[in-house]
């Protein structure tokens, strides 16, 4: 379950940002997770609750936004939605030359006191 190490990394980011901005408690964290990232949102939420116990983020709400997977066709140069099994351009049938979104793992906002 790699979500535990991701939650630990998230907590480290929160601790570093709290020091920079002189805050004592984190109340809410917003993250963006790409649907191709293999991160299970419920598992990350549970892991975050466990690793944040007794820290400045104890009880903080973890809001997760899922970023849809999109590809770009090398032939047509269009962007299109992809799923985990099909990376084919709907216009020409070519294989996506590039995944332009869906692998993200970003902290977008931190609310603190």
Coarse structural class: alpha+beta
Order of helices and strands: HEHEEEEE
Helix content: 25-40%
> What is the overall shape?
elongated
Output the strand order for the largest sheet: 2-1-6
How many strands, which pairing sense, and closed or not: the largest β-sheet? 3 strands, mixed
Overall pLDDT = 91
Q: What is the terminal separation in angstroms?
A: 31 Å
Number of helices: 2
What are the main properties of this structure?
hypothetical protein PF0899 fold, 3-stranded mixed beta sheet, 3-stranded antiparallel beta sheet, alpha+beta, elongated, single chain, 6 strands
Topology:
Layout: H1 3-21, E1 26-34, H2 41-51, E2 61-67, E3 70-73, E4 79-81, E5 96-101, E6 105-112
Parallel strand pairs: 1-2
Antiparallel strand pairs: 1-6, 3-4, 3-5
